[in-house]
Hints:
Beta-Lactamase, Udp-n-acetylmuramoylalanyl-d-glutamate--2,6- Diaminopimelate Ligase, Chain: A, domain 1, alpha+beta, 51% helix, five-stranded mixed sheet
Amino acid sequence: MKWKGVTVRELLKLPVLKEAKVISGEEGLDRVVRYVDILEVPDLRGWLREGELVLTTGYSVRHDPDLLAALVEQLAQVDGAAVAIKTERFIADVPPSMLEKSREHGIPVLQLPNDLPYIDITYPIMEQIIDKQAALLRRSEEVYKTLMNLLLTSSGLQAVADTVAGLVQAPVWVVDKHGELLAGTAADGPGQEESVLSYDIAVDKQTVGRLLIGKESLDELELVCVEQARLVFSLEFMGRKIAEDTEARLRGSFFEEVLAGLPFSRQEVESKGRQFGLRPEWSWEVWLLEADAAILAPGTPFSAELEEALALEAARRRVKAHAMRQGERLVLMLAVDDARSDAGRGTAGPADAGSAWTAVLEPILAPWKQVRAGIGSRRPLWEASRGYTEARRALALGSRLDKRRQLLPYDDVEIFQLLLEAAESVNFEPLIDKKIGKLAAYDRENGTELVTTLYYYLATGGSLYETANRLFIHRNSVKYRMDRIREIAGVEFDSPLKGINYYLCTAFYLLKIME
């Protein structure tokens, strides 16, 4: 807070200045005086300060009184307070150019009695300034002690807000950085038409909330209360942040143990989860994000946006969401309250409950084309390690089948995982060679992508347009390739069963043979 000081108007009420006259710049009488100085030098550059009252006889400019206009100009540049001048002894009268600049900038020009000593002026003015400073400091200390006592006794935000409201005689609200009401003297927050003053609350140079006061303006004593309140609120927010960070770190360690597949019983996982506010009835999605380290690193625009979205969505759904780093990957543990989700959908099962997280995260990932996410099936917490394994497999398999796709649910690649597992005991190569061997050989000899084209064509339900988009070519090129595929391999799709056979063979070839 910048201390305002004493106004020129207030100083003119002092007995010593009862004979002083305002000869110009009356509109600036409410300018604040913080300092008083006597200047008798012609070059004032570097001497003047904000809130300064300059006393002068004009001695240094007696041969060119118009230079007093420059004094007013320079005072205006530094937001000075006023000029008090003694005439008759060295200059006959105040020059018109000085009065013109005074009116232009709203800098008051005061005419002092010629026989009034400077010491008789400066002493009472400084006494007024210092007395007001001392009063503000005493008030600041009183408020600080009162609010700190509330903080040290863990009275909470509401108690501090109530006390501040009493000090400023106005309703007070404390909101977080998202605008959510945390405490206040009115439960529903300020009205839209209500005059509200807003003050940031910061921790580690980052805004974490705001203090709102239902008042049009505050006097200096009230501003002292506000500044001390902001400090106490910052300490309260810092304490909360430390507690939240500690809980998040411990919760992250617990999640790492669960995802590692340590031999915990269901009862052990549920019991420990309750300690971190994880309810047993929640199910969990495990997302595994992969991208360059420069994108996923802490503090990057992507990480900041993701963190904020997770916090907002988790708060809205009244569940937990946790992000933890694994090398250059990011693991997301996302809870879903099945009871809430089912009630909101009006259905009886959780089959699409995970779509809420997809709807939130997909727009965040979309601008970052390098980011891919493997998504495991929803499972209870004690089976989250299986969801993590599925997310890793979805990321590995899905990215090889479709390099453009960002969201890769395990459900979409589960059949291919089963095929790869079966291939360890069953030889699929003769079947693949029979179905697409000629296409594969043609690709190897000519550097073409006919097998890949066939896969995308079948994966998109026979859409030339979608296939072209995934291959970054024109749809006429896709049509030409499909004609070549039919010529080379005699491929026909006259039944759904044939389409399934070719789809599985092309996918298996891309996953296994070209691994």
